[in-house]
Design a protein that fits this description.
Layout lengths: L1 H17 L10 H46 L12 H10 L10 H16 L3 H9 L28 H24 L4
Helix pairs in contact: 1-2, 2-3, 2-4, 2-6, 4-5, 4-6
């Protein structure tokens, strides 16, 4: 906000200088504030786009880490996306090893992260319907799909508000996974 005020103040000085010889010119701070308001809108859009990108990237990274662990457990490797297991297949394999990820406290938040990342990437469609069914509170009261032409990464009007929650859930998931591994080892599971 301070930056927007500084921009508005600079604009006021610029306008006063520009019209200093015009006795009929009336320059108000409100006119200059428009520059600051536009700046705030641009920064807000950029911040929202970055949150959305980081959320999609966080989910992608989480999936990659799970697949890497799956590869370590199964001694299988994948060379491309076509041969990589799906998240459901990875979770099922972990369950076969006695690691029930879906019972972890963080799993609900990570499932929400998956849905949010899909809405960010794909916009309105199946992803947004699934996310709405999962948690209606994530959407404004009247969320309607209005794509922004020329404004990629804004999530088609959807903004991730709880990025920090998802980041913490990923970190806590790995703590839960480590504990589950130790429990499996203590119980003699292979």
């Amino acid at each position: 906000m301070d930056e927007a005020i500084a921009i508005a103040d600079e604009e006021l000085l610029r306008l006063r200088e520009k019209y200093k010889d015009d006795p009929d010119a009336i320059i108000t701070w409100e006119e200059a504030w428009e520059e600051g308001r536009v700046y705030l809108q641009d920064i807000d859009r950029l911040r929202n786009a970055l949150k959305n990108m980081m959320t999609a990237a966080l989910h992608h990274m989480f999936e990659q880490q799970l697949c890497e662990l799956w590869s370590d457990l199964t001694y299988e490797t994948t060379k491309d996306r076509e041969t990589a297991p799906t998240l459901r297949e990875v979770v099922a394999t972990f369950r076969d090893y006695g690691l029930n990820c879906e019972s972890f406290e963080t799993w609900g938040t990570l499932e929400e992260l998956r849905l949010v990342a899909n809405v960010v990437k794909h916009g309105k469609g199946r992803a947004s319907r699934e996310l709405t069914a999962h948690n209606q509170k994530l959407f404004p009261v009247d969320w309607s799909f209005k794509p922004f032409i020329g404004r990629p990464l804004e999530g088609y009007g959807f903004v991730v508000w709880q990025w920090e929650k998802y980041f913490e859930a990923v970190a806590e998931f790995w703590d839960e996974m480590a504990e589950a591994f130790l429990n499996c080892a203590d119980n003699g599971a292979s």
